[in-house]
Amino acid sequence: MAITATPQDNRWWVSRHQTGINYTRPIQLAKTFAGAAADGLVKSGTPYPTNDEDIIGFIVNDVDVNSIAQSGCSLLQIGIVNPQLLPVTLHADAVTALKDAGKITLLDADGMVDLS
């Protein structure tokens, strides 16, 4: 399955129009969100809440947490993700947690479903 851009150009996840199996929900990010860069920007595809065994999903939109105390965005919790296209490298504990939870399927380096 080829990865194509969504309207937000989030090429790191396969759109529900291609698979029918995405689930996102709205969340609030505080100015102190650990995934924010030094300039206060959180890139689309950032692991949430952390890039470790506590991961539950990925931030869908680019978010500027400088603008207000809490910034709204969407969190992808069910779907197919290509880790090679994320803004950060997934920590091994995050990969294990995602596979164990079974809600987010990771693609391998060839863009195929990783069944390992």
Overall tally of domains: 1
Helix proportion range = 10-25%
CATH topology: Virus Head Decoration Protein, Chain: A
Number of helices: 2
What structural class should be given to the helix and strand makeup?
alpha+beta
What is the average of the pLDDT values? 81
> How large is the share of residues in beta strands?
25-35%
CATH architecture: Beta Barrel
- Terminal-residue CA separation: 18 Å
* Poorly predicted runs: 1-8
> What general form does the structure show?
globular
* Helix and strand sequence: HEEEEEEHE
What does the radius of gyration come to?
14 Å
Note the quaternary state here.
Answer: single chain
Number of beta strands: 7
For the biggest sheet, the summary is: 5 strands, mixed
What CATH first level would be assigned? Mainly Beta
What would you say this structure looks like, in words?
This protein is an alpha+beta fold and 116 residues long. It has one domain (16-106): Virus Head Decoration Protein, Chain: A. It is built from 2 helices and 7 strands. Strands 1, 3, 4, 6 and 7 form a 5-stranded mixed beta sheet that branches. Strand 6 (70-81), helix 2 and strand 7 form a beta-alpha-beta unit. The longest helix is centred in the last third of the chain and has 10 residues, at 92-101. The chain is globular and about 40 Å long.
